[in-house]
Amino acid sequence: MEEVEVVVAHDERATLRVGDVFLKIDADQARTDVEVEAMAMAPLPTPEVLWRRPPVLALAALPGTALGRLGEPSPASPAAWAAAGAAARRLHDAPLPPWPGRSIDEIAAGLDVECEWLITNDVLPADLVTRNRRVAEAALRPWTPVFTHGDLQLTHVFVDGDELTGVIDWSEASRGDALFDLAILTLGHEERLGDVIAGYGSDVDLDVIRAWWSLRSLVAIRWLVEHGFDPFSPGCEVDVLRSQ
């Protein structure tokens, strides 16, 4: 009998690995609908859907290993990071998915709520929150929507040597800002941004990338704390805010 590995588990969803099969259990089947459709549309290697019996989605494991983990040095080569940037470009050049993403007003409103919570509950110093809230303003500008992954963190990008082997976890895919994907990919790994941009192949507004680093970190902290993750770990979200 194969050993069952708990990859992630909280009150919204859980992912288990049994051999070469991942079992994703999600309380919100709309997220799973998005994941399956986005993987079918994306011009990138994605996990094979083995079967779906709500609330469970069974996916085949991808070859290779993740680019790395937040808070730890990445073992991947500069060429592998460049390959991730090139993959992001292929995705952003693809036809748009039929469902919309969040509007600028929705993002700004969520940011305001989370900043108030961080200050009111003494989670972070007010000056740190305020400073990063100002930095985040640069992200809240009009953009041309592209097909975005929506959660393109380095643990979701798999490589084998210098080659990209696939991208996982597409439940947040939507129409969105291309620079958001690049920012999430390099969150906590600023030293890899040059490699990603080299693979992406076009000029990138670094102020907007930094703005998304601040915005994403500010809005994620409450969710991470409430779901058993530690944004105060070295190199993670709070350190990103302090570095801005």
UniProtKB/TrEMBL annotation:
<dbReference type="GO" id="GO:0016740">
    <property type="term" value="F:transferase activity"/>
</dbReference>
<feature type="domain" description="Aminoglycoside phosphotransferase">
    <location>
        <begin position="38"/>
        <end position="201"/>
    </location>
</feature>
<dbReference type="InterPro" id="IPR011009">
    <property type="entry name" value="Kinase-like_dom_sf"/>
</dbReference>
<dbReference type="Pfam" id="PF01636">
    <property type="entry name" value="APH"/>
</dbReference>
<protein>
    <submittedName>
        <fullName>Aminoglycoside phosphotransferase family protein</fullName>
    </submittedName>
</protein>
<dbReference type="InterPro" id="IPR051678">
    <property type="entry name" value="AGP_Transferase"/>
</dbReference>
<dbReference type="InterPro" id="IPR002575">
    <property type="entry name" value="Aminoglycoside_PTrfase"/>
</dbReference>
<keyword id="KW-0808">Transferase</keyword>
